[in-house]
Write a structure and sequence with these properties.
8 strands; single chain; two-stranded parallel ribbon; 5 helices; 16% strand; 202 residues; alpha/beta; flat
Length: 202
């Protein structure tokens, strides 16, 4: 495909470097696949909010959602999810428990859309693997404090965080202030208390 041709074209005068990069990516993909297989079945025994043991139905749904999440992540790593704005990852099924802690490189992803729940955790750690985002849409998460990983996304232009429990604070304002290219900010459905200062936005 075009993605593979463009990758190979970058090494046309250096076959040794091409083979080295190919080996590196094979190893990275294998590790990512292994990590996700372990994460898929590593469900919490109890509901993170109520503390009650998961029912068999809740467990089955949670496992199905994790399997779909892993599949979407692997397709994104393989550069199979390109849209008009570049490579993207879309997660529509809420994850119960921690999002996976990744080592793989997802800096090629420009758009991340994730629908979670108050039972979804470890969001900031997960987002650290996406420093190249231009567009981030996260909804229904439990994020009273903005993820510090946002400050490491210098190209971020659009930030949508709806119904995430975000409150106004100096720390959150500092994170927003670090996003020099941000042109759209949507914080609807959050108990902000007072609106953020957006005077520095372009």
């Amino acid at each position: 495909n075009e993605e593979a041709r463009n990758f190979a074209a970058g090494f046309q005068n250096d076959p040794a470097a091409f083979n080295a990069e190919l080996t590196k990516r094979r190893i990275e993909y294998g590790r990512l696949s292994d990590d996700l297989r372990k994460w898929e079945i590593d469900l919490p025994a109890n509901d993170p909010l109520s503390g009650l043991p998961l029912t068999s139905i809740e467990r089955r749904v949670a496992l199905q959602n994790r399997a779909r999440f892993s599949d979407a992540l692997l397709r994104t790593w393989r550069r199979e999810t390109r849209g008009s704005a570049g490579h993207m990852l879309q997660i529509t099924d809420p994850i119960l428990g921690d999002l996976p802690a990744l080592e793989a490189d997802f800096s090629h992803v420009h758009m991340l859309s994730i629908n979670g729940s108050a039972r979804t955790a470890a969001v900031d750690v997960f987002m650290q693997r996406f420093p190249g985002l231009w567009y981030l849409d996260a909804q229904n998460l439990n994020l009273p404090n903005l993820p510090q990983s946002l400050a490491s996304m210098p190209e971020l232009r659009q930030l949508i965080l709806r119904d995430c429990g975000i409150t106004h604070s100096a720390e959150n304002q500092a994170v927003l202030g670090s996003l020099s290219k941000l042109s759209l900010l949507d914080l609807r459905g959050n108990p902000l208390g007072m609106p953020p200062d957006v005077r520095a936005m372009p």
